[in-house]
Write a structure and sequence with these properties.
The protein has 426 residues and is of the alpha/beta class. The protein has 2 domains: 118 residues, Aspartate Aminotransferase, domain 1 (Alpha-Beta Complex), CATH 3.90.1150; 263 residues, 3-Layer(aba) Sandwich (Aspartate Aminotransferase, domain 2), CATH 3.40.640.10. It contains 14 helices and 15 strands. Helix 10 links the parallel strand 8 and strand 9. The protein is globular. The two termini are 20 Å apart. 44% of the residues are buried.
Length: 426
């Protein structure tokens, strides 16, 4: 296992010193941290599954409940944050999260719904070009989605699905292998759909190189950013990706089942000839309420909307995005790299041959998640760690996923986790 520079020290005093110098340390106080039965806060490392609740979320939602109670339908126009254009007030903040222009993003639906809606437009298979490229270890929902799209178009997944696997004895994909697979199948690939950060290994893919390779081959390139949005630096517009979708209940802290997001590159903003499933909220705003029978899509990502959005979910998203804006994305990325590097150092310091990290050691190839493999282990070890006040994540057969989130995790959290894991390994 590659270790971090020796400037790190495996001690509670060093962790406390790092926390004292952390300019984002006070942001932890903006979140509700679950507590153990004894009243102590848990060590929460599952922001990659469900982010903590901002303390302002209740106020944001309560405002909408109040406006509904006092204004009724007039809340669409007279609420503190008018409901009619509510999704628009998060557009610029979402664009900043994923490195896009405002015209390229929209908050709508849920993640897999958005992937399907985007594939309706961007997966246009032909007899010659019908294959979809995904990771062999993609999140199951992505696998189900692409397989069903293939079947919907009358093709067989056995012939039309290319699954990328690591080399024998390795745990993550090499970019050159992805590029080679794309080049070798250049005449038959219709779509490349990868997770921006693999949910299991924590590997961050090289968006720019993969997009360039795919488009050179004549394919459409899209990304599932469920584990990337709010976690790693994204430049979707600059990287020229065709489309992307993400959820907002993980790193974006918007609550279970929260409203998702979608990206469609600006060059497709007026591609009105693309097939799409239409709904009235995607109709141009100027004539939407004339109730005409002909669908006229809005320019940009908004044109893929179906229904008017859920206001309470948008309120929760807005509460979190305001915190992100206050913290600053560059500050978050800087702290994330330090936190994750410290966790990696501490894991190596355990010096137990059973413990390895399958997430890339290169900070440029990961976000804040480290996936810890414990040889010959089972869920017994995970349960022992959990019983000591840690909320992490177990993935079969032998991986504990740990995500120190820079908005609310501390260096002391990381140190305490490593000490608990070391103790339980005994």
């Amino acid at each position: 296992m590659q270790t971090q520079p020796s400037r790190y020290v495996a001690s509670a005093a060093f962790a406390a010193e790092m926390d004292a110098g952390d300019r984002l340390r006070n942001f932890r106080d903006k979140f509700h941290v679950p507590k153990q039965p004894n009243g102590e806060e848990v060590l929460y490392f599952t922001g990659n599954s469900l982010g903590l609740q901002p303390k302002t979320t209740g106020d944001y939602i309560e405002q909408e409940l109040k406006d509904w109670a006092t204004l009724g339908v007039e809340g669409h126009f007279r609420a503190k944050r008018a409901w009619m254009p509510y999704h628009e007030i998060v557009t610029e903040q979402l664009a900043a999260i994923v490195g896009a222009k405002p015209i390229e993003v929209v908050a709508m639906n849920s993640l897999t719904v958005n992937l399907h809606l985007l594939m309706v437009s961007f997966y246009r298979p032909t007899a010659a070009r019908h294959k979809i490229v995904i990771e062999a270890g993609a999140f199951p929902s992505d696998q189900y989605a692409v397989q069903s799209q293939i079947k919907f178009h009358g093709f067989d997944a056995e012939d039309s699905l290319i699954e990328l696997s690591p080399r024998e004895g390795e745990t993550v994909l090499r970019t050159e292998d992805i590029e080679r697979t794309i080049a070798e199948n250049a005449d038959s690939i219709a779509l490349i759909l990868l997770g921006g950060v693999n949910y299991y290994t924590g590997q961050k893919f090289d968006f720019q190189k993969i997009t360039a390779a795919g488009q050179k081959a004549g394919a459409i390139v899209g990304f599932d950013l469920a584990h990337a949005a709010g976690n790693v630096e994204l430049k979707l517009h600059e990287w020229n990706a065709d489309f992307a979708a993400w959820c907002s209940y993980k790193y974006l802290n918007s609550g279970p089942g929260a409203i998702a997001g979608a990206f469609v590159h600006e060059r497709h903003a007026e591609s009105f000839d693309l097939p799409r499933f239409a709904g009235w909220w995607g109709h141009e705003k100027e004539t939407r309420f004339l109730m005409g029978s002909e669908f006229v899509p809005i320019r940009g990502a908004e044109g893929w909307q179906l229904s008017n959005p859920p206001i309470f979910q948008l309120a929760a998203l807005k509460a979190s995005l305001d915190i992100f804006e206050e913290a600053g994305m560059n500050n978050l990325f800087e702290k994330s790299s330090e936190l994750t590097g410290y966790l990696e150092f501490l894991l190596a310091d355990i010096k137990d041959e059973r413990v390895s990290v399958i997430t890339p050691a290169n900070p440029q190839e990961r976000g804040c998640q480290l996936s810890i493999r414990v040889k010959n282990s089972d869920k017994t070890l995970f349960k022992a760690v959990s019983d000591k006040g840690v909320i992490a994540d177990w993935r079969e057969p032998d991986v504990i996923r740990v995500a120190p989130v820079p908005l609310y995790n501390s260096f002391t959290d990381v140190f305490r986790f490593a000490e608990i894991l070391k103790d339980c390994l005994k």
